[in-house]
Amino acid sequence: MNLPPKVTDRAFARLHEIGAHAQGKALRVAIEGGGCSGFQYEIKLDDPADDDLVLEGSGEQVVIDEVSLPFLTNAVIDFSEELIGARFVIENPNATSSCGCGTSFSM
C-alpha cells in the first residue's frame, strides 16, 4: 500500500526549535540524481510551492514536490542527534541500498 511519507514528532519539534515557520519556511525534502548510489536527498529550509505535498505538525511544515513524492512513498522523516552531529534523516523502505553517510541511495 502506497502511503505518503510520515514526519516524526521529533522532526517537527526540531523545526519548531529553529523557528522555520516563524521565518515563513518549511523543511523541503527532495530527491535528486547523483550521489554515490544514484539518488540523493536534498533537505533544506525553503518556501512552499503551490503543487507541494504539505505535511503539518506542531505548527511546522514539511514539503515534498510531486516529482520526489514517488521516491518517498512510505518513508519516515526524522531528526537524529548523535555524537557526530545532528541532522534530519530519511528512513526509506523504497531504497534497495544506501551509502554510509545516509544521504544517497539506489532503487
TrEMBL record:
It holds the Pfam family Fe-S_biosyn. SUPFAM superfamilies: HesB-like domain (SSF89360). One of its GO terms (biological process) is iron-sulfur cluster assembly. InterPro entries: ATAP (IPR016092), ATAP_core_dom (IPR000361), FeS_cluster_insertion_CS (IPR017870), HesB-like_dom_sf (IPR035903). PROSITE patterns: HESB (PS01152). Transmembrane segments: none annotated. One of its GO terms (molecular function) is 4 iron, 4 sulfur cluster binding. It comes from the Bacteria. Residues 6-102 form the Core domain. NCBIfam families: iron-sulfur cluster assembly accessory protein. This is Iron-sulfur cluster assembly family protein.
